[in-house]
Amino acid sequence: MNWRRLSVMRPRAWLAARRGWRHRLYLVLAGGLSALSMAPLHFWPALMVGLCVFLWSLDGARRTDRPVRSALLRGFLFGFGLFLAGTFWIAFAFITRGPGYGALVPVALPGFAALLAIFWGLAGLLYVRLAQRSEWRVLVFAAVITLTEGVRGHLFGGLPWNLPAYTWSAGGLISQSAAWAGVYGLTFLTVYMLASPAVALGSRFRLTRLMPLMSAAILALILACFGALRLSAMPEGEQPDVRIRLVEAGLSQSEKWGPGGGEISRDRYLDLTAEAGLDTVTHVVWPEGALPIFMLEDGDTLGRIAQTLDQGQILMAGVNRRARLEDGYAYYNALAVMRFSSGSPRIEGLYDKVRLTPFGEMVPMSWLLRLIGFDEFTRYQFTPGPAPSVLTPTGAPPVLPLICYEAIFPG
């Protein structure tokens, strides 16, 4: 068999033949494709293809006149595609604020993706500087990506969004490895396993090229077996005396925030909460920001809830709350644990969200926007809570609240 003539086995050479804007476009597309490996699809082959294209491109950067600068740009372009596709949801934070804010999407979304892409650019730079011309260079590739992703996850409070480790669905076999390796250890293993095919393909067939791929396959099998054993050994954890009712109204943003949205949302949640079987329920959970009002200040709403939960049930509700300051209010995205006895609410626990979502709940570098006169865009944002805290609802095990994207932070 003439391996040299099988162009399908030489994708690296094909990519290297693409010059100028075409090569840059393919890198952005490869990054965007990689985003399909994240929730909710978890299609890991997409990340494998993307990482292989990225590695081949960095190998090609070595042959340019300015390899370091070329690698920095190539890493940035790949990361830009990855985060442009993976952070599209930021656009909805602007659109739902009103017509005037939607105009900022074409600036904010690419700008945010570009900021995060810098770290992938640094990974490309480090790879070209450190990697040897060996089949095992994929280890360096995995190491530098893990390093720069770790920096991204901690610098300025961190934003570990769409780490390569998150390609494995939570609770699945491979994800169990995070129990001993941590999310960054699993990131290293993920990049190594999925990028190994890149070094197996070349212009000439050599058995040594297959060694990283074979070791990656064995590693994946070991991780899957470990995950299966760990899951089989997990205790059931069921508490027969606790029965939880999860309530989600499924209202659109226009219904929720439009005229009369407070009453519509309240009535919908109360109707769902009061459905048949409530007498057997011990705890009711409403989601983040369930009602578009300051529920803890609304006596009518609290009275209606007390009428519904008249058998001592605990309500754990995501609420927006505010605290008065000398010059106005501080606003918090919170979880309130309430018990209704004798018709009056008693707050058993309160957690204020610590890590706020950029652009949705807070505006990054808002001090700079205020300095240049854009106070309007920073006026309404949440204040972070002091620290994570464990709540102990009556009749239930201790709870560590994680609101929205707080769940992506390891530890």
Commentary on this structure:
The structure is a single chain. The protein has 411 residues and is of the alpha/beta class. The chain folds into two domains: 3-232; 244-408, Carbon-nitrogen hydrolase (Nitrilase/N-carbamoyl-D-aminoacid amidohydrolase, 4-Layer Sandwich), CATH 3.60.110. It has helices at 11-17, 20-34, 44-61, 67-86, 90-95, 99-102, 105-130, 137-152, 178-195, 197-200, 210-232, 253-257, 261-273, 299-308, 366-371; strands spanning 244-246, 283-286, 314-325, 328-341, 344-352. Strands 1-2-3-4-5 form a five-stranded mixed β-sheet. Helix 2 (20-34) packs across helix 4. 34% of the residues are buried. The model is unreliable at 1-8 (pLDDT under 50).
Over the alpha carbons, how many angstroms does the gyration radius reach?
25 Å
Overall spatial form: globular
Work out the strand percent. Answer: 5-15%
Strand order within the widest sheet?
1-2-3-4-5
Oligomeric form: single chain
Q: Let me know the average pLDDT.
A: 89
Helix content: 40-55%
Number of strands: 5
Characterize the largest beta sheet: strand count, sense, and whether it forms a barrel.
5 strands, mixed
Give the uncertain stretches in residue-range form: 1-8
**Count of the separate structural domains:** 2
Q: How many separate helices?
A: 15
Helices and strands: which structural class?
alpha/beta
What is the N-to-C succession of helices and strands?
Answer: HHHHHHHHHHHEHHEHEEEH
Q: How far apart are the termini?
A: 51 Å
